[in-house]
Structures are given as structure tokens and as C-alpha cells.
Amino acid sequence: MDANDAFQIHLQKLPPQDEKTFETIYTLGNGHFGIRASNPLQGNSSHFNGQPGMFVNGFYDLTELSYGENYSGYAQNSQTICQLPDPRFIIFEVDGIRSDETPYDVKLVDKNLDMRTGVLMEIFDVKSPTNKQFRLTLQSFASHADKHLFVIKYSVSALNFTGALTVIKQHPYIDQQIKFHTDDMRASQPETMLDRTFIRSKLPIMLISTRKSQLALIIAQQALNDNPMQVNIIDDLPSFSKTFDLTQGMSQSFSFVYAISFPHPLLKTTLTQSSFAAASEKRLADKSFKQLLDESAAKIDQFWENSDVELSGDATLAKGIRFNLFHLYQAAGSDGLTSIPAKGLTGPGYEGHYFWDAEMFMLPYFIYTEPAIARQLLLYRYHTLPQAQHRAREMAVDNGVMFPWRTINGEEASSYYPAGTAQVHINADIAYAVDTYVRVTGDDDFLTDYGYEIIVKTARFWLAYGHWATDDAHQGKFVIDDVTGPDEYTAMVSNNYFTNRMAQNNLSIAVKYSNQLKHSHPEKLVTLNVTDKEIDQFNRAADGMYLPYDHELKIKKQDDLSTSKPVWPIKETPRDQFPLLLHYHPMTIYHYQVNKQADTVMTDFLFPKDQDAAQLKRDFDYYETITVHDSSLSRAIFGILAHRLHHADDAYHYFMQTVMMDLTNSQGNTGDGIHAANMGSTWLSLIYGFAGLGLEKESFNLSPELPEAWDSLRFRIWFHGRQIEITITQSAVTVKLLSGEPLQFYLKHKTFQLTKGRLVNQFLK
């Protein structure tokens, strides 16, 4: 395989899938927006099977939540990412028949995504109702140089006729809501109603607004100068149009660029629409497809310089890894006001909500490879602290903040609280992510200006929500009752191990950074009203945290009562009854020991020094037998732990189930959007698992062990302003300092000095 092919996702090499799955796989995005790779003639028609649309990060409407019994504190509205009109949409007219009025026959011939440049190439064969056939070729990309821009080039060539073909580029619809039926609540598609007005301008520029959230954005469209078109009014809509005289064997090409603004409150957008229109006219004038592509490709090239993972020994697997990393890059908000939706910006699944997934499964990848993006993702949480504080008071928690389980705007959008709001561990997850970012990057300014406030306010929550026990079983211990851990098949329990251990860490790092800033920035403690008394309370609660343990089984207990429940008969359950949440009432599932995903063993992964190998093996063996992996987040964690236990076959098996999940649609729901957290888990498996990367004080350690099928693994990380390249083979590890000051690091816990111009090369066996 040549080097270029290693970055190509070619349709002909993928297993057969339905239209919606391919639309997801080939979605183009840049963190600001994502555009599904749909049939460009579909538009708002239900004649075809696709689900076209554009998703703008942070652009949502409110959908009222309905309850039979509406208790105080229930989320009243869900936030649903808006499915906007498809900018790929195009209308053809042949023999007086328009393709948006009488459907043409459209056959997909080929697709190829070049991840090196970000360009998607597609070929369709189109037949009009009068049997005129022509080939339609698309080249498109979402710009990574200017996050506002989407660029698309069309080429048409006649296959069986000579004559006229008229092209019309307009957007006659606003509500991109092609209904599909599903019993999967994860793929719900609430209705959102959008409004549109056209702004007076030389270009077709429309202001799109939501009715309930009162957000708006502006989309401007311009024909590029490779085959310029004039703006006309067609069907009372500003449109580009042109008639081509086609000759067999000759193609005609024309290109467009869209400028898509960031979402803002409707009032602000309305007041600035004239200036945006003027800026758009200037921004889009005299641009060529090649110029815009070159600028974007240069940014993507830098991304690969930082983030590429080179795996030798399995070309298909290597490509799957790159596909996952590329989609993560396409999904990540970078404006400090948005995060990463669970489905990226590739589909409507989970309504575009952000979960703990962003901090726990995806953020580590950005911390080590694109720290500037990681900083912006954490700033999103900082900017939603006011909403988190309001939520805590709404839930009668009188101190600290309570981050929402699922959200876009910072408010809770989870309607089923036992598996939503009750997952208060998200507070500690976010604090853990802040600590990891600071430890890896050394960004003390972020800590002082933003991160410390997040850590302190989440720590305060635990003091307010937990309490010192007086009963015999927990006497003198700090306990946390009535919560749900990561395992959503076990809800509303006391002392979920994961929650308590994460809360303990949250409290401990609050003490650590309070003592640190007390000397370097004492004014910060004054501003946040952090006192010595409160620091002592944090410390006492951390030291006194109750962590349930089954002394008979010698395992960490998932919660106070977990090991006393009957075990779900997993082997006797028909395969078509998984995932369980789609086939059994929650009360039925809660009655048993059965885990949707890694829960207690997540702490074994996050805190490797908490246990020795014997304890890790007991935990792993016990929880592996009761975990059904109905969440895409699960297998990677078990795989990393299998690696640490030197269970090479198990580690490799789990990894292979994660890395190709979306390219093969192994979960059966890729059509609703990618599994972004699973993509982040791919990187975790490689770097935390097979490379054995772990944080030490002021440094890092490597304990690598490659699967036998691989020849080598090479990747780069940033650590405290230094870029480091690590190459692992079956017999040796080579570490190279690419930029920055010398650094001491550890290889299998032995100390080495890393300096520029000198390789550290050590044999493993």
C-alpha cells in the first residue's frame, strides 16, 4: 500500500451499508459544522432513503419534555441540535423537468475521502424522467483554515445525449426534517421549527433562527470564479442558475462556497446582519476552489504532523485508526463555547448533546496532540459554571456546582433522571480532566484563570451532597448516597465505587491546587472565598471517603448492595435481545447484576496505582463476566486493563472490536452518527494500553507491549511544551525530542534523560 492510499477511505473497500451509514462515514466537518454526505438531489424529499443535513455546533432549539408526573427539578426542555438545509443540495432541469419536482433516478457510483487533504470525492449517475443520463461528480471540503467555510465543486458530463442542462442552486426549504421511524430512544428526532429571512445583499444570504431558544445564524453563498454564475430570483428565492450545452465526453464544472456564521442570540444576529452581509461579500469575493483547498489542506497537514498514529503490520487497521482520529478532529469545538457531541457533527443521534464522553474519552487525545483545542473544550465547561451553579441550587445542593449529564447550553436536558441527572460523577470527571490537562501541558495560566475555579466548585458539591455516616456499616466514613455510576443498568445506589473514588480525587486535587495557589496566587483563593477551614474539610472528606469492598470475593464492590443481587443470565439471553435497554424495562435490569459498560473497573484504568496486579485481575475477571458492553464506551477500557494484565489476546480482541466500529457499522446504528467516544477510546487503547503511557509527577512513563501482529507503532505527544516522538517495535523503544527543553522520563519505571538531537533507544527484551 502506498503512503497516499493509507489516508483514503474508499467506498469500494467498505462492507455494503445503507445510505444513512455511508452519509455518516463520509460526513465533512471542522468542529463548527458538519455536513452529511447525502445524495445531493435529495433535499427535503422523502423519495430517497437518505437523511441529509448540516449540523452547526451549539445551534439548537428547545423541545418541551413531557412527564406524566412532573416533579420539582425535572428538566423542562431538551435541547435538540438543528438539522439545517443541506448545502450540497442542487437542482437540475432537463427537458423542462426539475429534479426537485419530479424525482430523477440517482445511483451512487463511488466515494472516496482523502483524509490528507480533507477532500471528499463522489460520483453519481443520474437519469432524468426523459431518460437523459449524465454523470455528476462532487468534490467538497469543510475548511480548517476558515471554520466558517464549506466549499463544493460540481462537474456534469452527458452520458447518452447532447443538449441543454440547467443548474439551479437554491434552498427552497428550511425545515430539514425527513422522518424516519425507530424504536431506539438514542436516535430520537424531536421536531424543531426554524424561520428564515433573506438579507438584502449581492449574494444569497439567509438568516436562520429558532423559535424557542431564540438563536440565529447567517449563511451566505457565493459562486466561485472558476465558472461564475449570476444571482437570479427563481420561485421568489435568490438563486444561482446557468444552462450548459453538454456534449458527450466533455464535462462542465462549477463551484460554490458557503460562509456559515457562529450561532448568536437572535437579537444580536439581527442587529449585525448588515455588517455580516458586507463582510461575507468581501470574504468570498475572488476566491477559487484551489486557493481555499490549499489553505485548508495546510491546516490538516499540521494536524497529522501532531496527531498521526503510524501502525505498521496491518494496513486496514492503520487506516481505521486514522479514520477515527480524523473524525475526532472534525468534531471538536474550538471556540470555548462548544464541546464535542456524542455523535460528533455527523447525525442527529442523542440530539447533539455533550456528555461525560467529551472529558473522559475524547479529551485525552486532544490534551496530548492538540492542547490548544483541549483548552477550548475545557473552557466550554468553565463558561457554563453559572448554569451548573443554578442547577445545584435547583436540586437543593447549597454549595458548589452540579454539571448537567446531557446538555448543549449548559442546562440539564436529561428527562430520565435515574440514568441522567443522578450521574453526578460528571462533576468529578470534569475536574479529573482539568487536572490531567494541567499535568500534561503545564498550563498554569489556565489553572489560575479557569481550571482552579472548576475544581473548587465541583469539590464543594461533594461536601454538600455527601455526608459523614453514623450507621454501623459506614461509621465515621464520608458516603455519597442515591447516585448512578457509569453503568446505567444499575441506578440510584449508595456509594457507587466509581463515583466515590472520583469524588475523592476531586477533593484531593482541590487541596493540592489550593495549597499551590496559596503561595503563587493567594488572591485567587480570596476571590473564590477558599479558606483554610474549607481546605481542611476537602482533605478530611477525601481521606474519609468510603470505598466499598467485598472482603469475601476480594473485589471492589460497585456499590453497597451490588454483589448481593442475582446475576443476569447473559449466556441464555438471545442475541437479538441486546442491547438490553431496548428490550427490558429498567426495573427488570436494575434487579440484576449486569453492567452496560465498564464502571468500577474504570477506576482501575484511571488510577492504576490504586491496586496491585492481583487486585486488578480479581476486579477484571469478576466484572468482565457481568458486562454486556451495550455501550460503545466499554470495550476499550477492558482492553486496556487486559493489556496491563498481559492478556495479549484479550487486549487485542477488545481493541479490534472498537477501532472499526463505524467503518463496519458493527453496532448497527452508525447511520445516526459516529460513536465519537469510541473513537477517542481507540487512541486511549493505543497510547494508554499498548504503549503503556502513564503520568508520573512532572513526567511520564512508558511500559509498551505490542500485539504480535504489529511491526511498529509511532506517535507524537506534547508534554509541557515539548513535542516528543515515540517509536515502539517488537524489540525496542525509541524516544526523540522534536522541540522544547530537555526532559527526564521513565521507561518501565527506569529513568532516562531526553535531550534534543539525541535519541533514547532501548531494547525491550
TrEMBL record:
The active site is at 488 (proton donor). GO terms for molecular function: carbohydrate binding; glycosyltransferase activity; hydrolase activity, hydrolyzing O-glycosyl compounds. This is Maltose phosphorylase. It comes from Secundilactobacillus silagincola. Residues 699-754 form the Glycoside hydrolase family 65 C-terminal domain. Residues 322-683 form the Glycoside hydrolase family 65 central catalytic domain. Gene3D superfamilies: 1.50.10.10, Glycoside hydrolase, family 65, N-terminal domain, Maltose phosphorylase, domain 3. Residues 13-233 form the Glycoside hydrolase family 65 N-terminal domain. Belongs to the glycosyl hydrolase 65 family. Pfam families: Glyco_hydro_65C, Glyco_hydro_65m, Glyco_hydro_65N. It comes from the Bacteria. The keyword Glycosyltransferase applies. Keywords: Glycosyltransferase, Transferase. The lineage of its organism: Bacteria, Bacillati, Bacillota, Bacilli, Lactobacillales. Substrate binds at residues 356-357, 596-597. GO terms for biological process: carbohydrate metabolic process.
